[in-house]
């Protein structure tokens, strides 16, 4: 009986899994430090590459991303570099052609400031954005608030990203 039930669940889930859509996302933009972090560095730039997977009739997608941030120091000296790997839940708010969404997630962030040793810490983020286009090539723009917990305090910044979806 268990085998029949398992086969029935798999048979029902298979069409949904086959219909799953994956989109490659590439973007970049401005990263603005916030809080205590803004006293140590100026606004910097970032690049982001991600893969978003979702089921067409389900409004929540999963997105995995890799990011690189560079923040120049206020004094004009060396830079603070950051590499991050994140996972987000992305909820579409509907729309045709122009589709707003909200996202929230967590990740691991390696912060490498010039004055101290590099640290890898956990962090979380939340934000909103808009997707442009329908099938095939499209674009997106989003803003997030990121908080990275560290031994000496939290690192907060706000990245604004513009990019392409394939």
Describe the structure.
With 166 residues, this protein is mainly β. It contains two helices and eight strands, in the order H-E-H-E-E-E-E-E-E-E.
Task: Write a short abstract of this structure.
The protein is mainly beta and 166 residues long. 13% of the residues lie in helices and 62% in strands.
Number of strands: 8
**Gyration radius from CA atoms, angstroms:** 19 Å
Question: How much helicity do the residues have?
Answer: 10-25%
The class by helix and strand makeup works out as mainly beta
CATH topology: Porin
Number of domains: 1
Poorly predicted spans: 5-18
Major pleated sheet? 8 strands, antiparallel, barrel
Principal-axes geometry comes out as elongated
- Indicate the proportion of strand residues: over 45%
CATH class: Mainly Beta
H/E element sequence: HEHEEEEEEE
Rounded mean pLDDT is 86
Instruction: Provide the spatial order of strands within the biggest beta sheet.
Output: 1-2-3-4-5-6-7-8
